[in-house]
Specification:
150 residues; mainly beta; Lipocalin; 8-stranded antiparallel beta barrel; 13% helix; 49% strand
Length: 150
Amino acid sequence: MKWILSVVLAMLVTLFCVDFAPVNKSVVYAQSLPGEAGGAVEEKSIGEFKAKKIVACDGFGFTWTFKISKKGKIKGKVQTTNCGVRTVTGTYNKNTQAITLVATTTPTESCCKSFTYTGTFNTTTKSGSGTWVNSSECSGSGTWTMSACQ
């Protein structure tokens, strides 16, 4: 009977340690908050998925908040000046720093369904530049720049 209690106790201790031991669940880099110089960068690890959180502002006054997964997938949002918050998806190549950001929303009379930013982006400095184009129901294209929010 005594050995059974020892085995049960050992199993409970093992289960407790496995469930509650820190396993690299989150690493946060202390940097300024969004809206302050430097922007915010956060890296989270959940299993094999790692995502770097980016907060940056572009030359049109839009605030971009998105995460880049370890595999280069982008998900997030952008606060525009005239068309509200849009959903952001895209891709990032860490080797070439190539980025594509697609911002979509429900189209209205004064807002396009989507617009796409294509260019390069440095995740360390949170700065980039490239070209943009509106979705097909709207006209418009040009260049964009982005940097850490001030």
